[in-house]
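Aim 2, interim progress. The first record below pairs a target sequence with its C-alpha coordinates.
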Amino acid sequence: MLVVNESDAKSDPSHPPIDAWADRPRAELLRLAWPIAVSTVSYAVMTLVDTLFVGRIGPAALAGVGLGGVAAFTLLCFPMGLLRGTKVLVSQAIGAGQRDAPRRHAAAGVFVALAFGAAGVGLSVGLAELLPALTATPASGAAARTYLRIRMVGAPAFLLYVALREARYGLGDSRSPMAASIAANVVNVALDALLIGVFEMGVAGAAWASVAGHVAEAGVLVMRQREEGLVRPTRADLAELLDVGVPTGVQFLLEVGSFSILTAILSSLDEREMAAHQIALQVAHFTFLPLVAVSEAASVLAGQAVGARREALVGRVAREALKTCFLYAALCTVVLVGFGGPIADAFTDDAPLRAIARNLLIVAALFQFLDAAQVVAHGVLRGAGDVRYAAKVAVAASWLAIPPLTWLLGVEAGLGALGGWIGICVELGVAGALLWRRFRSGAWQEVAARRRARAEAAAIAA
Protein backbone atom coordinates (compact mmCIF):
# COMPACT_ATOMS: atom_id res chain seq x y z
CA MET A 1 0.00 0.00 0.00
CA LEU A 2 1.26 3.48 -0.84
CA VAL A 3 1.41 5.47 2.40
CA VAL A 4 2.39 9.05 3.09
CA ASN A 5 3.50 9.69 6.66
CA GLU A 6 2.31 13.25 6.92
CA SER A 7 -0.26 14.26 9.50
CA ASP A 8 -3.82 14.96 8.57
CA ALA A 9 -4.75 18.58 8.10
CA LYS A 10 -8.06 19.39 9.75
CA SER A 11 -9.40 21.38 6.85
CA ASP A 12 -8.44 23.04 3.65
CA PRO A 13 -8.41 26.83 4.02
CA SER A 14 -9.36 27.31 0.38
CA HIS A 15 -13.01 27.33 -0.71
CA PRO A 16 -14.33 23.82 -1.36
CA PRO A 17 -14.88 22.98 -5.04
CA ILE A 18 -18.63 23.25 -4.63
CA ASP A 19 -18.32 27.01 -5.16
CA ALA A 20 -17.11 26.37 -8.68
CA TRP A 21 -20.33 24.64 -9.77
CA ALA A 22 -23.07 25.77 -7.37
CA ASP A 23 -24.52 28.19 -9.94
CA ARG A 24 -24.32 25.72 -12.83
CA PRO A 25 -24.91 22.16 -11.58
CA ARG A 26 -25.89 20.85 -15.03
CA ALA A 27 -22.52 21.77 -16.53
CA GLU A 28 -20.65 20.09 -13.66
CA LEU A 29 -22.93 17.07 -13.85
CA LEU A 30 -22.13 16.61 -17.53
CA ARG A 31 -18.41 17.27 -16.97
CA LEU A 32 -18.29 14.41 -14.50
CA ALA A 33 -20.77 12.15 -16.28
CA TRP A 34 -19.37 11.89 -19.80
CA PRO A 35 -16.05 10.26 -18.81
CA ILE A 36 -17.97 7.90 -16.51
CA ALA A 37 -20.26 7.11 -19.44
CA VAL A 38 -17.27 6.33 -21.63
CA SER A 39 -15.89 4.13 -18.84
CA THR A 40 -19.12 2.21 -18.37
CA VAL A 41 -19.74 1.79 -22.08
CA SER A 42 -16.14 0.69 -22.52
CA TYR A 43 -16.66 -1.96 -19.84
CA ALA A 44 -19.85 -3.07 -21.60
CA VAL A 45 -17.86 -3.34 -24.83
CA MET A 46 -15.51 -5.78 -23.05
CA THR A 47 -18.40 -8.08 -22.22
CA LEU A 48 -20.03 -7.50 -25.59
CA VAL A 49 -16.85 -8.50 -27.42
CA ASP A 50 -16.64 -11.66 -25.31
CA THR A 51 -20.27 -12.40 -26.19
CA LEU A 52 -19.75 -11.82 -29.91
CA PHE A 53 -16.66 -14.05 -30.04
CA VAL A 54 -18.17 -16.80 -27.91
CA GLY A 55 -21.54 -16.55 -29.69
CA ARG A 56 -19.94 -17.84 -32.84
CA ILE A 57 -18.85 -20.99 -31.00
CA GLY A 58 -22.45 -21.97 -30.30
CA PRO A 59 -25.44 -21.56 -27.95
CA ALA A 60 -23.93 -23.85 -25.29
CA ALA A 61 -20.79 -21.73 -24.98
CA LEU A 62 -22.82 -18.52 -24.96
CA ALA A 63 -25.20 -19.84 -22.31
CA GLY A 64 -22.24 -21.03 -20.22
CA VAL A 65 -20.49 -17.67 -20.36
CA GLY A 66 -23.76 -15.97 -19.40
CA LEU A 67 -24.19 -18.17 -16.32
CA GLY A 68 -20.50 -18.05 -15.37
CA GLY A 69 -20.46 -14.26 -15.73
CA VAL A 70 -23.48 -13.88 -13.47
CA ALA A 71 -21.86 -16.20 -10.91
CA ALA A 72 -18.67 -14.11 -10.95
CA PHE A 73 -20.63 -10.91 -10.55
CA THR A 74 -22.57 -12.49 -7.67
CA LEU A 75 -19.32 -13.19 -5.83
CA LEU A 76 -18.06 -9.64 -6.41
CA CYS A 77 -21.23 -7.62 -5.97
CA PHE A 78 -21.05 -7.24 -2.18
CA PRO A 79 -17.52 -5.73 -2.15
CA MET A 80 -18.39 -3.66 -5.22
CA GLY A 81 -21.35 -2.15 -3.39
CA LEU A 82 -19.36 -1.72 -0.19
CA LEU A 83 -16.58 0.12 -2.03
CA ARG A 84 -19.08 2.64 -3.38
CA GLY A 85 -19.02 4.02 0.13
CA THR A 86 -15.54 5.32 -0.70
CA LYS A 87 -17.04 7.76 -3.17
CA VAL A 88 -19.57 9.02 -0.62
CA LEU A 89 -16.93 9.58 2.05
CA VAL A 90 -14.43 11.24 -0.29
CA SER A 91 -17.01 13.56 -1.88
CA GLN A 92 -18.37 14.67 1.47
CA ALA A 93 -14.83 15.29 2.75
CA ILE A 94 -14.10 17.39 -0.34
CA GLY A 95 -17.29 19.38 0.19
CA ALA A 96 -16.28 20.00 3.81
CA GLY A 97 -12.85 21.25 2.71
CA GLN A 98 -10.87 18.48 4.47
CA ARG A 99 -7.45 17.94 2.93
CA ASP A 100 -6.11 14.48 3.77
CA ALA A 101 -9.32 12.66 4.70
CA PRO A 102 -9.90 11.69 1.03
CA ARG A 103 -6.55 9.87 0.94
CA ARG A 104 -7.33 8.01 4.13
CA HIS A 105 -10.69 6.94 2.70
CA ALA A 106 -9.00 5.80 -0.52
CA ALA A 107 -6.49 3.73 1.49
CA ALA A 108 -9.30 2.12 3.46
CA GLY A 109 -10.95 1.20 0.16
CA VAL A 110 -7.75 -0.40 -1.14
CA PHE A 111 -7.39 -2.50 2.01
CA VAL A 112 -10.98 -3.74 1.80
CA ALA A 113 -10.69 -4.40 -1.95
CA LEU A 114 -7.65 -6.64 -1.68
CA ALA A 115 -9.09 -8.59 1.25
CA PHE A 116 -12.37 -9.30 -0.56
CA GLY A 117 -10.56 -10.04 -3.83
CA ALA A 118 -8.55 -12.82 -2.21
CA ALA A 119 -11.69 -14.22 -0.57
CA GLY A 120 -13.52 -14.19 -3.91
CA VAL A 121 -10.86 -16.31 -5.57
CA GLY A 122 -11.22 -18.94 -2.87
CA LEU A 123 -15.01 -19.00 -2.96
CA SER A 124 -15.11 -19.36 -6.74
CA VAL A 125 -13.40 -22.75 -6.62
CA GLY A 126 -16.34 -24.38 -4.87
CA LEU A 127 -19.05 -22.43 -6.69
CA ALA A 128 -17.68 -23.43 -10.09
CA GLU A 129 -18.36 -27.09 -9.33
CA LEU A 130 -22.03 -26.34 -8.64
CA LEU A 131 -22.81 -24.56 -11.91
CA PRO A 132 -23.25 -27.63 -14.16
CA ALA A 133 -26.24 -28.63 -12.02
CA LEU A 134 -27.98 -25.41 -13.07
CA THR A 135 -27.64 -25.79 -16.83
CA ALA A 136 -29.79 -27.44 -19.46
CA THR A 137 -26.92 -29.41 -21.03
CA PRO A 138 -23.51 -30.74 -19.92
CA ALA A 139 -21.78 -28.59 -22.57
CA SER A 140 -23.12 -25.32 -21.22
CA GLY A 141 -22.35 -26.48 -17.66
CA ALA A 142 -18.72 -27.18 -18.54
CA ALA A 143 -18.42 -23.78 -20.22
CA ALA A 144 -19.86 -22.01 -17.16
CA ARG A 145 -17.46 -23.83 -14.81
CA THR A 146 -14.42 -23.00 -16.93
CA TYR A 147 -15.36 -19.35 -17.35
CA LEU A 148 -15.97 -18.75 -13.63
CA ARG A 149 -12.75 -20.45 -12.48
CA ILE A 150 -10.58 -18.32 -14.75
CA ARG A 151 -12.51 -15.06 -14.56
CA MET A 152 -12.23 -14.90 -10.77
CA VAL A 153 -8.44 -15.00 -10.91
CA GLY A 154 -8.72 -11.32 -11.75
CA ALA A 155 -10.93 -10.51 -8.73
CA PRO A 156 -8.23 -8.75 -6.62
CA ALA A 157 -7.21 -6.54 -9.55
CA PHE A 158 -10.80 -5.74 -10.42
CA LEU A 159 -11.75 -4.74 -6.86
CA LEU A 160 -8.56 -2.68 -6.52
CA TYR A 161 -9.67 -0.81 -9.62
CA VAL A 162 -13.16 -0.31 -8.14
CA ALA A 163 -11.75 1.12 -4.90
CA LEU A 164 -9.47 3.59 -6.68
CA ARG A 165 -12.16 4.45 -9.22
CA GLU A 166 -14.64 5.35 -6.47
CA ALA A 167 -12.02 7.49 -4.74
CA ARG A 168 -11.26 9.34 -8.00
CA TYR A 169 -14.97 9.92 -8.61
CA GLY A 170 -15.34 11.37 -5.12
CA LEU A 171 -12.52 13.80 -5.90
CA GLY A 172 -14.33 14.92 -9.04
CA ASP A 173 -11.84 13.11 -11.30
CA SER A 174 -13.77 10.93 -13.72
CA ARG A 175 -11.16 11.04 -16.50
CA SER A 176 -8.55 8.81 -14.87
CA PRO A 177 -11.00 5.89 -14.49
CA MET A 178 -12.06 6.52 -18.10
CA ALA A 179 -8.45 6.12 -19.26
CA ALA A 180 -8.17 2.92 -17.19
CA SER A 181 -11.32 1.39 -18.66
CA ILE A 182 -10.26 2.21 -22.21
CA ALA A 183 -6.90 0.53 -21.59
CA ALA A 184 -8.72 -2.53 -20.25
CA ASN A 185 -10.95 -2.62 -23.30
CA VAL A 186 -8.04 -2.47 -25.73
CA VAL A 187 -6.28 -5.33 -23.94
CA ASN A 188 -9.45 -7.42 -23.80
CA VAL A 189 -10.36 -6.99 -27.48
CA ALA A 190 -6.82 -7.80 -28.62
CA LEU A 191 -6.63 -10.92 -26.47
CA ASP A 192 -10.12 -12.09 -27.45
CA ALA A 193 -9.06 -11.97 -31.08
CA LEU A 194 -5.81 -13.75 -30.32
CA LEU A 195 -6.94 -16.38 -27.80
CA ILE A 196 -10.32 -17.20 -29.32
CA GLY A 197 -9.82 -16.34 -32.99
CA VAL A 198 -6.24 -17.58 -33.45
CA PHE A 199 -5.49 -20.08 -30.68
CA GLU A 200 -9.10 -21.35 -30.49
CA MET A 201 -9.16 -21.39 -26.68
CA GLY A 202 -12.93 -20.80 -26.66
CA VAL A 203 -14.53 -19.90 -23.35
CA ALA A 204 -11.20 -20.08 -21.51
CA GLY A 205 -9.73 -17.54 -23.93
CA ALA A 206 -12.58 -15.12 -23.27
CA ALA A 207 -12.08 -15.44 -19.51
CA TRP A 208 -8.29 -14.89 -19.67
CA ALA A 209 -8.79 -11.85 -21.89
CA SER A 210 -11.12 -10.34 -19.26
CA VAL A 211 -8.61 -11.05 -16.48
CA ALA A 212 -5.88 -9.27 -18.41
CA GLY A 213 -8.21 -6.32 -18.96
CA HIS A 214 -8.86 -6.01 -15.22
CA VAL A 215 -5.13 -6.06 -14.47
CA ALA A 216 -4.58 -3.31 -17.03
CA GLU A 217 -7.28 -1.01 -15.63
CA ALA A 218 -6.07 -1.47 -12.06
CA GLY A 219 -2.52 -0.71 -13.15
CA VAL A 220 -3.52 2.60 -14.70
CA LEU A 221 -5.22 3.82 -11.52
CA VAL A 222 -2.41 2.58 -9.27
CA MET A 223 0.01 4.71 -11.27
CA ARG A 224 -2.36 7.67 -10.97
CA GLN A 225 -2.69 7.21 -7.22
CA ARG A 226 1.09 7.04 -6.77
CA GLU A 227 1.22 10.70 -7.71
CA GLU A 228 -0.78 11.58 -4.60
CA GLY A 229 -0.07 8.68 -2.26
CA LEU A 230 -2.34 7.27 0.41
CA VAL A 231 -2.54 8.28 4.06
CA ARG A 232 -2.61 5.28 6.39
CA PRO A 233 -6.25 4.71 7.38
CA THR A 234 -7.29 4.54 11.00
CA ARG A 235 -9.69 2.02 12.47
CA ALA A 236 -12.26 4.81 12.47
CA ASP A 237 -11.79 5.20 8.69
CA LEU A 238 -12.36 1.50 8.11
CA ALA A 239 -15.39 1.55 10.42
CA GLU A 240 -16.79 4.56 8.56
CA LEU A 241 -16.37 2.82 5.21
CA LEU A 242 -18.16 -0.25 6.54
CA ASP A 243 -20.94 1.90 8.01
CA VAL A 244 -21.58 3.65 4.70
CA GLY A 245 -20.72 0.79 2.37
CA VAL A 246 -22.22 -2.33 3.94
CA PRO A 247 -25.88 -1.37 3.26
CA THR A 248 -25.11 -0.84 -0.42
CA GLY A 249 -23.03 -4.02 -0.47
CA VAL A 250 -25.92 -6.01 0.99
CA GLN A 251 -28.25 -4.34 -1.51
CA PHE A 252 -26.02 -5.32 -4.43
CA LEU A 253 -25.69 -8.89 -3.15
CA LEU A 254 -29.40 -9.43 -2.63
CA GLU A 255 -30.34 -7.68 -5.90
CA VAL A 256 -27.90 -9.85 -7.80
CA GLY A 257 -29.22 -12.83 -5.87
CA SER A 258 -32.69 -12.22 -7.24
CA PHE A 259 -31.24 -11.71 -10.72
CA SER A 260 -29.18 -14.90 -10.33
CA ILE A 261 -32.40 -16.82 -9.61
CA LEU A 262 -33.83 -15.40 -12.84
CA THR A 263 -30.70 -16.56 -14.67
CA ALA A 264 -30.77 -20.00 -13.07
CA ILE A 265 -34.45 -20.48 -13.99
CA LEU A 266 -33.82 -19.50 -17.61
CA SER A 267 -30.67 -21.62 -17.79
CA SER A 268 -32.65 -24.68 -16.65
CA LEU A 269 -35.43 -24.07 -19.20
CA ASP A 270 -33.65 -23.95 -22.52
CA GLU A 271 -30.28 -22.94 -23.94
CA ARG A 272 -31.88 -20.53 -26.40
CA GLU A 273 -33.85 -18.74 -23.67
CA MET A 274 -30.64 -18.29 -21.67
CA ALA A 275 -28.62 -17.27 -24.72
CA ALA A 276 -31.28 -14.72 -25.76
CA HIS A 277 -31.28 -13.32 -22.23
CA GLN A 278 -27.48 -12.93 -22.45
CA ILE A 279 -27.71 -11.14 -25.81
CA ALA A 280 -30.43 -8.75 -24.65
CA LEU A 281 -28.58 -8.11 -21.41
CA GLN A 282 -25.42 -7.05 -23.23
CA VAL A 283 -27.39 -4.68 -25.45
CA ALA A 284 -29.26 -3.29 -22.44
CA HIS A 285 -25.91 -2.45 -20.86
CA PHE A 286 -25.46 0.22 -23.50
CA THR A 287 -28.75 1.82 -22.54
CA PHE A 288 -28.36 1.37 -18.78
CA LEU A 289 -24.71 2.20 -18.12
CA PRO A 290 -24.80 5.83 -19.33
CA LEU A 291 -27.75 6.32 -16.96
CA VAL A 292 -25.52 4.95 -14.22
CA ALA A 293 -22.85 7.47 -15.24
CA VAL A 294 -25.23 10.38 -14.68
CA SER A 295 -26.33 8.81 -11.40
CA GLU A 296 -22.72 8.47 -10.25
CA ALA A 297 -22.01 12.11 -11.12
CA ALA A 298 -25.16 13.19 -9.26
CA SER A 299 -24.02 11.13 -6.27
CA VAL A 300 -20.67 12.95 -6.18
CA LEU A 301 -22.29 16.39 -6.37
CA ALA A 302 -24.90 15.48 -3.75
CA GLY A 303 -22.10 14.31 -1.44
CA GLN A 304 -20.15 17.53 -1.90
CA ALA A 305 -23.29 19.60 -1.24
CA VAL A 306 -24.03 17.69 1.96
CA GLY A 307 -20.42 18.01 3.13
CA ALA A 308 -20.60 21.76 2.56
CA ARG A 309 -23.94 22.03 4.43
CA ARG A 310 -25.77 23.16 1.29
CA GLU A 311 -28.59 20.65 1.07
CA ALA A 312 -30.68 22.92 -1.16
CA LEU A 313 -28.24 22.16 -3.98
CA VAL A 314 -29.06 18.45 -3.77
CA GLY A 315 -32.54 19.11 -5.16
CA ARG A 316 -31.13 21.05 -8.10
CA VAL A 317 -28.66 18.27 -8.83
CA ALA A 318 -31.46 15.66 -8.74
CA ARG A 319 -33.65 17.62 -11.16
CA GLU A 320 -30.84 18.20 -13.65
CA ALA A 321 -29.83 14.54 -13.51
CA LEU A 322 -33.41 13.39 -14.09
CA LYS A 323 -33.85 15.67 -17.11
CA THR A 324 -30.60 14.42 -18.62
CA CYS A 325 -31.50 10.76 -18.08
CA PHE A 326 -35.01 11.14 -19.49
CA LEU A 327 -33.61 12.69 -22.67
CA TYR A 328 -31.18 9.80 -23.08
CA ALA A 329 -33.91 7.25 -22.27
CA ALA A 330 -36.09 8.66 -25.05
CA LEU A 331 -33.26 8.19 -27.55
CA CYS A 332 -32.66 4.60 -26.42
CA THR A 333 -36.35 3.76 -26.70
CA VAL A 334 -36.41 4.91 -30.33
CA VAL A 335 -33.28 2.90 -31.17
CA LEU A 336 -34.45 -0.33 -29.53
CA VAL A 337 -37.93 -0.17 -31.05
CA GLY A 338 -36.66 0.75 -34.51
CA PHE A 339 -33.55 -1.42 -34.72
CA GLY A 340 -34.08 -4.26 -32.22
CA GLY A 341 -34.28 -6.84 -35.00
CA PRO A 342 -30.99 -6.03 -36.74
CA ILE A 343 -29.25 -5.71 -33.36
CA ALA A 344 -30.34 -9.22 -32.35
CA ASP A 345 -29.39 -10.60 -35.77
CA ALA A 346 -25.79 -9.39 -35.31
CA PHE A 347 -25.21 -11.83 -32.44
CA THR A 348 -26.21 -15.16 -33.92
CA ASP A 349 -27.26 -17.04 -37.06
CA ASP A 350 -29.75 -19.15 -35.07
CA ALA A 351 -33.21 -17.99 -36.22
CA PRO A 352 -35.22 -19.10 -33.14
CA LEU A 353 -32.63 -17.49 -30.87
CA ARG A 354 -32.83 -14.22 -32.82
CA ALA A 355 -36.63 -14.16 -32.45
CA ILE A 356 -36.48 -14.53 -28.66
CA ALA A 357 -33.80 -11.86 -28.36
CA ARG A 358 -35.83 -9.40 -30.46
CA ASN A 359 -38.80 -9.75 -28.11
CA LEU A 360 -36.59 -9.08 -25.08
CA LEU A 361 -35.20 -5.93 -26.70
CA ILE A 362 -38.72 -4.59 -27.16
CA VAL A 363 -39.33 -5.03 -23.42
CA ALA A 364 -36.01 -3.28 -22.77
CA ALA A 365 -37.24 -0.35 -24.85
CA LEU A 366 -40.36 -0.09 -22.70
CA PHE A 367 -38.58 0.23 -19.35
CA GLN A 368 -36.08 2.97 -20.26
CA PHE A 369 -37.86 5.77 -18.39
CA LEU A 370 -38.48 3.58 -15.35
CA ASP A 371 -34.79 2.75 -15.31
CA ALA A 372 -33.80 6.41 -15.58
CA ALA A 373 -36.02 7.49 -12.68
CA GLN A 374 -34.89 4.83 -10.22
CA VAL A 375 -31.17 5.07 -10.98
CA VAL A 376 -31.09 8.85 -10.46
CA ALA A 377 -32.96 8.57 -7.16
CA HIS A 378 -30.57 5.86 -5.97
CA GLY A 379 -27.52 7.93 -6.82
CA VAL A 380 -28.70 11.12 -5.15
CA LEU A 381 -29.81 9.39 -1.95
CA ARG A 382 -26.54 7.44 -1.69
CA GLY A 383 -24.50 10.58 -2.23
CA ALA A 384 -26.41 12.29 0.57
CA GLY A 385 -25.61 9.35 2.84
CA ASP A 386 -29.14 7.91 3.00
CA VAL A 387 -27.86 4.49 2.02
CA ARG A 388 -29.97 2.27 4.27
CA TYR A 389 -33.36 3.35 2.95
CA ALA A 390 -32.18 3.11 -0.66
CA ALA A 391 -30.86 -0.39 0.01
CA LYS A 392 -34.06 -1.60 1.68
CA VAL A 393 -36.23 -0.38 -1.19
CA ALA A 394 -33.99 -1.91 -3.85
CA VAL A 395 -33.86 -5.29 -2.13
CA ALA A 396 -37.59 -5.47 -1.44
CA ALA A 397 -38.55 -4.45 -4.97
CA SER A 398 -36.18 -6.90 -6.65
CA TRP A 399 -37.14 -9.92 -4.55
CA LEU A 400 -40.88 -9.28 -4.64
CA ALA A 401 -40.91 -8.80 -8.41
CA ILE A 402 -38.16 -10.64 -10.29
CA PRO A 403 -38.04 -14.25 -8.98
CA PRO A 404 -41.83 -14.67 -8.52
CA LEU A 405 -42.71 -13.19 -11.92
CA THR A 406 -39.94 -15.14 -13.66
CA TRP A 407 -41.47 -18.34 -12.30
CA LEU A 408 -45.11 -17.39 -12.81
CA LEU A 409 -44.76 -15.81 -16.24
CA GLY A 410 -41.61 -17.48 -17.51
CA VAL A 411 -42.24 -21.07 -16.40
CA GLU A 412 -45.91 -21.47 -15.54
CA ALA A 413 -47.25 -19.19 -18.31
CA GLY A 414 -44.62 -20.41 -20.78
CA LEU A 415 -43.18 -16.97 -21.64
CA GLY A 416 -39.58 -17.98 -20.90
CA ALA A 417 -37.08 -15.14 -20.68
CA LEU A 418 -39.84 -12.66 -21.55
CA GLY A 419 -41.53 -13.36 -18.20
CA GLY A 420 -38.34 -12.53 -16.32
CA TRP A 421 -37.91 -9.26 -18.18
CA ILE A 422 -41.48 -8.25 -17.35
CA GLY A 423 -40.53 -8.81 -13.72
CA ILE A 424 -37.60 -6.42 -14.18
CA CYS A 425 -40.02 -3.75 -15.43
CA VAL A 426 -42.20 -4.13 -12.33
CA GLU A 427 -39.16 -3.95 -10.04
CA LEU A 428 -37.91 -0.72 -11.64
CA GLY A 429 -41.30 0.97 -11.41
CA VAL A 430 -41.87 0.13 -7.74
CA ALA A 431 -38.35 1.05 -6.63
CA GLY A 432 -38.35 4.35 -8.52
CA ALA A 433 -41.69 5.45 -7.06
CA LEU A 434 -40.62 4.71 -3.47
CA LEU A 435 -37.22 6.37 -3.81
CA TRP A 436 -38.61 9.59 -5.26
CA ARG A 437 -41.22 9.68 -2.53
CA ARG A 438 -38.40 9.51 0.02
CA PHE A 439 -36.49 12.28 -1.68
CA ARG A 440 -39.46 14.63 -1.88
CA SER A 441 -40.29 14.06 1.79
CA GLY A 442 -36.91 15.47 2.83
CA ALA A 443 -36.35 12.63 5.33
CA TRP A 444 -32.90 12.06 3.85
CA GLN A 445 -31.69 15.40 5.24
CA GLU A 446 -31.77 14.20 8.84
CA VAL A 447 -29.74 11.12 7.89
CA ALA A 448 -27.26 13.30 5.99
CA ALA A 449 -26.82 15.62 8.98
CA ARG A 450 -26.02 12.72 11.33
CA ARG A 451 -23.51 11.22 8.93
CA ARG A 452 -21.84 14.60 8.37
CA ALA A 453 -21.49 15.10 12.14
CA ARG A 454 -19.74 11.71 12.48
CA ALA A 455 -17.39 12.51 9.60
CA GLU A 456 -16.45 15.87 11.11
CA ALA A 457 -15.77 14.24 14.48
CA ALA A 458 -13.55 11.60 12.81
CA ALA A 459 -11.61 14.32 10.94
CA ILE A 460 -10.92 16.17 14.19
CA ALA A 461 -9.84 12.97 15.97
CA ALA A 462 -7.43 12.10 13.14
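The second target in this work package is listed in the same format:
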Amino acid sequence: MTSELVTDRHLCRKAMIYIRQSTANQVVTNQESLRLQYALRQRASDLGWDDANIEVVDVDLGLSGSTLSHREGFKDVIARVTLGEVGIILSYEVTRLARNCTDWYPLLDLCGFRQCLIGDRDGIYDTRA
Protein backbone atom coordinates (compact mmCIF):
# COMPACT_ATOMS: atom_id res chain seq x y z
CA MET A 1 0.00 0.00 0.00
CA THR A 2 1.47 3.33 -1.04
CA SER A 3 0.40 6.91 -0.42
CA GLU A 4 0.73 9.94 -2.67
CA LEU A 5 1.81 11.89 0.43
CA VAL A 6 5.05 9.88 0.73
CA THR A 7 7.80 11.47 -1.34
CA ASP A 8 11.53 10.90 -1.78
CA ARG A 9 12.04 13.66 0.79
CA HIS A 10 10.31 11.45 3.36
CA LEU A 11 11.86 8.18 2.23
CA CYS A 12 15.44 9.43 2.66
CA ARG A 13 14.71 9.93 6.37
CA LYS A 14 13.69 7.45 9.08
CA ALA A 15 10.33 5.81 9.53
CA MET A 16 9.79 5.69 13.29
CA ILE A 17 7.34 3.07 14.57
CA TYR A 18 6.12 4.18 18.01
CA ILE A 19 4.80 1.30 20.14
CA ARG A 20 3.15 1.74 23.50
CA GLN A 21 0.69 0.11 25.85
CA SER A 22 -0.46 1.96 28.95
CA THR A 23 0.22 -0.61 31.65
CA ALA A 24 2.55 -3.52 32.32
CA ASN A 25 -0.51 -5.75 32.57
CA GLN A 26 -1.58 -4.80 29.02
CA VAL A 27 1.88 -5.69 27.73
CA VAL A 28 1.47 -9.20 29.17
CA THR A 29 -2.22 -9.83 28.45
CA ASN A 30 -2.85 -8.00 25.19
CA GLN A 31 -0.44 -9.71 22.83
CA GLU A 32 -2.64 -9.10 19.77
CA SER A 33 -2.24 -5.35 20.22
CA LEU A 34 1.52 -5.76 20.38
CA ARG A 35 1.54 -7.94 17.28
CA LEU A 36 -0.48 -5.34 15.36
CA GLN A 37 1.80 -2.53 16.52
CA TYR A 38 4.99 -4.36 15.54
CA ALA A 39 3.38 -5.15 12.17
CA LEU A 40 3.63 -1.44 11.36
CA ARG A 41 7.22 -2.19 10.33
CA GLN A 42 5.76 -3.95 7.29
CA ARG A 43 3.49 -0.97 6.64
CA ALA A 44 6.54 1.31 6.53
CA SER A 45 8.19 -1.10 4.11
CA ASP A 46 5.05 -1.17 1.95
CA LEU A 47 5.10 2.64 1.87
CA GLY A 48 8.62 2.54 0.42
CA TRP A 49 11.04 2.71 3.35
CA ASP A 50 14.14 0.51 3.24
CA ASP A 51 14.52 -1.79 6.24
CA ALA A 52 17.66 0.10 7.28
CA ASN A 53 15.59 3.30 7.61
CA ILE A 54 12.82 1.78 9.75
CA GLU A 55 13.20 2.08 13.51
CA VAL A 56 10.93 0.63 16.17
CA VAL A 57 10.66 2.62 19.38
CA ASP A 58 9.16 0.44 22.11
CA VAL A 59 10.86 1.64 25.29
CA ASP A 60 7.59 3.20 26.50
CA LEU A 61 5.77 -0.13 26.76
CA GLY A 62 3.83 -0.29 30.01
CA LEU A 63 3.85 3.48 30.52
CA SER A 64 0.76 5.67 30.64
CA GLY A 65 0.43 8.32 27.96
CA SER A 66 -1.10 10.79 30.39
CA THR A 67 2.16 12.67 30.76
CA LEU A 68 5.15 13.15 28.49
CA SER A 69 7.71 13.53 31.26
CA HIS A 70 8.52 9.82 31.71
CA ARG A 71 8.10 8.66 28.09
CA GLU A 72 11.74 8.56 26.99
CA GLY A 73 10.97 6.87 23.67
CA PHE A 74 8.48 9.53 22.68
CA LYS A 75 10.87 12.30 23.70
CA ASP A 76 13.53 10.68 21.49
CA VAL A 77 11.12 10.61 18.53
CA ILE A 78 10.32 14.31 19.07
CA ALA A 79 14.02 15.19 19.24
CA ARG A 80 14.74 13.33 16.02
CA VAL A 81 11.81 14.96 14.23
CA THR A 82 13.17 18.32 15.42
CA LEU A 83 16.55 17.47 13.86
CA GLY A 84 14.87 16.59 10.54
CA GLU A 85 15.80 12.91 10.74
CA VAL A 86 12.26 11.49 10.55
CA GLY A 87 10.07 11.21 7.46
CA ILE A 88 7.11 9.53 9.16
CA ILE A 89 5.95 8.51 12.61
CA LEU A 90 3.74 5.43 12.52
CA SER A 91 1.58 4.31 15.41
CA TYR A 92 -1.27 1.80 15.52
CA GLU A 93 -3.56 4.71 16.38
CA VAL A 94 -2.47 8.32 16.45
CA THR A 95 -4.03 8.49 19.92
CA ARG A 96 -1.11 6.33 21.12
CA LEU A 97 1.23 9.23 20.42
CA ALA A 98 -0.36 11.77 22.77
CA ARG A 99 -3.23 11.57 25.24
CA ASN A 100 -3.77 15.29 25.71
CA CYS A 101 -3.74 18.47 23.68
CA THR A 102 -0.67 19.78 25.50
CA ASP A 103 1.40 17.03 23.84
CA TRP A 104 -0.64 16.60 20.63
CA TYR A 105 -0.69 20.12 19.18
CA PRO A 106 3.05 20.78 19.50
CA LEU A 107 3.67 17.41 17.81
CA LEU A 108 1.41 18.38 14.91
CA ASP A 109 3.10 21.77 14.57
CA LEU A 110 6.57 20.24 14.69
CA CYS A 111 5.72 17.57 12.12
CA GLY A 112 4.29 20.22 9.81
CA PHE A 113 7.33 22.44 10.18
CA ARG A 114 9.80 19.57 9.62
CA GLN A 115 7.67 17.96 6.87
CA CYS A 116 7.26 14.73 8.80
CA LEU A 117 4.18 12.64 8.11
CA ILE A 118 2.10 10.91 10.77
CA GLY A 119 0.48 7.58 10.03
CA ASP A 120 -1.66 4.94 11.65
CA ARG A 121 -3.58 1.88 10.52
CA ASP A 122 -6.24 4.10 8.94
CA GLY A 123 -4.15 6.52 6.92
CA ILE A 124 -1.21 8.81 6.35
CA TYR A 125 -1.51 12.45 7.40
CA ASP A 126 0.38 15.57 6.39
CA THR A 127 -0.11 18.09 9.17
CA ARG A 128 0.69 20.94 6.80
CA ALA A 129 -2.54 20.33 4.87
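Residues 67 and 99 are 8 Å apart (CA to CA). This observation will shape the mutagenesis plan for the next reporting period.
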